[in-house]
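Consider the tokenized backbone below.
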């Protein structure tokens, strides 16, 4: 696995101070949003806690002694939410899911795998989908359980799967 490649802005000290000019701030927020999404994807980060965010490497560059202040992190996270890359999990907006793919896109990827691996009209456990040997090469392998359920619910609404409960376990039938 290759190391994450930081964009040039990450080594530019003013990047860590949100600029007051509207046009510059828009460009800066575009860069921050792209950075957070790319970093989350590379590191398989699917949840973020606002209280822990200031200590995350994406918001703190120790090599130039710069960190994005907590209030600016909130601005970036709110922008990610507006763009559909973050979904708050609580009303106080302290925790959220980070998406580099929408639930619908994850669902389509999972359904394509089911078609390609002859799983139509069969049942798989959610564990098999995210942790099974047969999905090891798939991007959704290791996907957060809550995001997996969102993806499968999107497929269920589309009539492509049926979610099932087996007591202590959950599964899905691909239709």
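A designed sequence for it:
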């Amino acid at each position: 696995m290759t190391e994450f490649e930081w964009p040039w802005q990450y080594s530019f000290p003013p990047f860590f101070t949100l600029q007051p000019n509207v046009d510059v701030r828009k460009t800066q927020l575009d860069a921050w949003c792209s950075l957070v999404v790319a970093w989350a994807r590379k590191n398989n980060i699917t949840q973020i806690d606002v209280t822990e965010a200031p200590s995350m490497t994406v918001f703190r560059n120790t090599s130039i002694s710069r960190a994005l202040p907590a209030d600016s992190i909130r601005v970036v996270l709110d922008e990610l939410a507006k763009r559909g890359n973050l979904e708050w999990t609580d009303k106080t907006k302290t925790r959220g899911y980070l998406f580099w793919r929408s639930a619908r896109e994850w669902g389509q990827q999972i359904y394509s795998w089911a078609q390609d691996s002859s799983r139509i009209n069969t049942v798989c456990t959610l564990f098999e989908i995210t942790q099974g040997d047969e999905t090891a090469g798939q991007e959704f392998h290791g996907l957060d359980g809550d995001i997996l359920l969102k993806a499968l619910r999107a497929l269920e609404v589309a009539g492509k799967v049926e979610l099932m409960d087996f007591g202590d376990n959950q599964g899905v039938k691909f239709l």
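Residues 22-42 form the longest helix (21 residues).
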